[in-house]
Specification:
heterotrimer, A alpha/beta, B alpha+beta, C alpha+beta, A: alpha/beta, Rossmann fold, five-stranded parallel beta sheet, 6 helices, globular, B: alpha+beta, Beta-Lactamase, Alpha-Beta Plaits, six-stranded mixed beta sheet, 14 helices, elongated
Chain lengths: 121, 337, 210
């Protein structure tokens, strides 16, 4: 069965950049969906859970911290990897406390994203 | 190939390079000349230990940020005047006790992008600081000149009215009463006609001096016109202004003027007005009112103070407060206490 | 002149986002505080409307202090950092706690020095990262305080610059430093002359990244 990935980022450019780093879908057999904000992410997830959520932190409608918190409330097993430009230690501590699996720094790379998929799918 | 050491030595900019331990690795000739420290003596030494004053100037912090963030840092002449206490060496021009300096700290990065050294450039900005000071001073002088009456060196009428306007705005907000005094030299025409204009000018100058010496610091005195002077008494009602006015009248009456070996006395008449009952009064309205009472003072025999008397915040036309020479006092009602 | 397409705008926003992210990490390490970032906003506006749009974004009733710094290199422009007027003491405290910022100056000068220092660090860190992402480097001029505890309406632009059609690129971001909540707005202005260079660099970035 195909795994489902949700990519959450308000910036179209950022989504493009992340998608470029993801391995091809036949190589890893996954289905990718995009959400341009925290609210939409929660809506999508409520309808049907995803196997992995790639989540940005700085977003205008609902930031990544809040989205992560609500997501994990909805589904305590939600698997979330943070992809962010906020690379401060404090930010990482906060998202790990909220149950994130890993923090990937922007701009990311193909090696990095392949490793993430390998590990969490 | 350009000879860079030669270039650095011939720059008319102080150039120092330090490493992470703050040890001096470059000290150009400009620095040698102004600090009188030859490079052999300072190379390898810790800069902030050779110049402990740099610590007070916040240099370690700035160097730190350059090493850690790789950014430029600056040291403002406006705030610090100078980084190094270098004497100015200009003999033929006005100058300042110490060379004014603007300083830039620049990161020098290695091939891997990390900051290896910090270059400190010291610019001598004494001349531009001097020009700026001169400019500010001339601007101040022009402003001052446009406010001061040339003969008496007190406020001119325009500035007196401006100040009164400012005071009125403050008083209106606070609800406090403000008073003004308008005074005029009695028979000044006689002084001019009998003793000449030079003597007349002397009387006005001297009078301005007497008035100034008798007023409080926050009272505002100005030359209103020819031999007329206006005074603003902030935060005071008529009673307070009356005390001030009477003190002025009595001081002037007792003062002996001396001109061309002739000794003589003069007297002044004073009219008062206040914003009581009319906090929105304009400067013109106030001085017009004071002028009416000044006219009454002249009509009552001069050398006296005449002020409005208030009943329930309205001026009572019949009852006038007055003080002055004995014969005037006898003719009118005494001052209410 | 080619326009600021959606793609370029997105790229610029992302570059600012990444560079400010890196800048805040260095600031966080240096000042030992958490720097909260917001999504940057990029807009193309006529130069004649810079003051008006700053007024709109900051509000004319707020008293602010504005630090200005010019940068030169492959692109030229200036950065304005607007900090609320009452932030002076918090700034001094934060720098002092951070790492021995304590020059011997009278109180008002110390406040100005703290503003200049914060301005220089924030501007230098952000623009440094920005330049690095675009494979170039920038030089900076002495920062200046344009406005001291006053409304943005008191900021006057150079009236000699009569080219009302000239465009500027205005990038706004707000940040918040530490629990003391020292917040501010950062505006980057590029003059139109440098758009070509900037767009070229952006297109190259887009090509490499997507």
């Amino acid at each position: 069965m195909k795994k489902k990935i949700l990519l959450v980022d308000d910036s179209m450019m950022s989504r493009l950049m992340i998608k470029k780093c993801l391995p091809s879908s036949d190589q890893y057999s996954y289905e990718l969906q995009e959400a341009d904000g925290g609210t939409k992410c929660l809506d999508f997830y409520r309808k049907a859970p995803y196997d992995l959520v790639l989540l940005d932190l700085t977003m205008p409608d609902m930031d990544g911290f809040e989205t992560l918190e609500k997501l994990r409330e909805m589904d305590p097993d939600a698997r979330v990897v943070i992809v962010t430009a906020d690379i401060q230690q404090k930010a990482a501590e906060r998202v790990f406390a909220l149950g994130a699996l890993e923090v990937v720094k922007k701009p990311t790379s193909q090696e990095k994203m392949t490793a993430v998929l390998e590990k969490y799918l | 190939m350009i000879d860079y050491p030669q270039l650095v030595d011939n720059l008319s900019i102080g150039t120092i390079v330090i490493n992470r331990a703050l040890e001096v690795v470059l000290w150009n000739r400009w620095m040698e000349n102004h600090s009188h420290i030859p490079r052999e003596q300072i190379l390898g030494k810790v800069l902030t230990e050779e110049f402990p004053a740099l610590k007070q100037k916040g240099i370690p912090w700035k160097v730190q940020t350059v090493f850690r963030l790789g950014n430029f840092a600056f040291f403002s002449q406006k705030l610090h005047q100078f980084l190094f206490e270098f004497e100015n060496t200009k003999y033929f021009r006005p100058t300042l006790p110490y060379m004014q300096q603007s300083v830039t700290l620049v990161p020098l990065k290695g091939s891997d992008g990390t900051v290896e050294y910090v270059c400190i450039s010291i610019f001598d900005v004494t001349d531009s600081v001097l020009y700026q000071q001169q400019l500010i001073e001339s601007k101040r002088k022009v402003e001052e000149l446009s406010k001061i009456d040339e003969l008496t060196q007190i406020n001119n009428r325009r500035h007196l009215m401006t100040r009164l306007n400012e005071e009125l705005a403050v008083h209106e907000r606070s609800g406090c009463v403000l008073s003004v005094i308008l005074l005029d030299v009695d028979d000044f025409k006689n002084v001019n006609d009998l003793r000449g204009h030079i003597c007349g000018d002397y009387v006005l100058r001297k009078l301005a001096g007497i008035l100034t010496s008798q007023l409080r610091q926050y009272d505002i005195l100005g030359r209103y016109g020819g031999e007329e002077f206006g005074i603003v008494v902030p935060g005071g009602g008529i009673d307070q202004a009356l005390v001030v006015a009477e003190r002025l009248r009595s001081k002037v009456e007792k003062f002996t003027f001396e001109c061309d070996n002739n000794k003589f006395n003069i007297t002044i008449s004073l009219g008062l007005a206040s914003t009581r009952g009319n906090l929105q009064a304009t400067p013109q309205e106030l001085f017009k009112m004071a002028d009416e009472f000044l006219y009454r003072a002249k009509a009552s025999g001069r050398n006296c103070v005449v002020a409005p008397d208030y009943k329930d915040n309205h001026i009572s036309k019949d009852s006038i407060l007055c003080s002055g020479s004995r014969d005037v006092l006898n003719k009118t009602s005494p001052i209410s206490s | 002149m080619e326009a600021l397409t959606e793609l370029r705008q997105g790229a610029l926003q992302e570059i600012i986002n990444i560079s400010f992210g890196r800048a805040s990490a260095s600031l966080a390490e240096l000042l030992k505080v958490y720097v909260a970032l917001n999504v940057p906003n990029v807009q193309e506006i006529p130069q004649s409307q810079i003051i008006e749009s700053l007024e709109q974004r900051i509000g004319i009733d707020t008293d602010i202090t504005v630090v200005q710094q010019s940068f030169t290199g492959d692109f030229e422009g200036e950065v304005l950092l607007a900090i609320p007027a009452n932030a002076g003491l918090r700034a001094i405290k934060m720098l002092g706690q951070g790492r021995g910022f304590a020059p011997a100056l009278p109180a008002t000068d110390l406040e100005m020095e703290a503003f200049l220092e914060i301005g220089n660090i924030v501007i230098g860190a952000c623009m440094g990262q920005f330049a690095e992402l675009l494979n170039t480097s920038l030089s900076y001029e002495v920062p200046d305080i344009l406005l001291t505890k006053s409304s943005i309406t008191n900021l006057r632009r150079d009236e000699s610059n009569k080219d009302v059609k000239a465009l500027a690129l205005l990038i706004k971001t707000d940040f918040q430093m530490g629990d003391e909540a020292l917040s501010g707005f950062l505006f980057i202005l590029f003059g139109q002359r440098w758009f070509d260079m900037l767009y070229l660099a952006l297109d190259k970035f887009i090509e490499e990244m997507t």
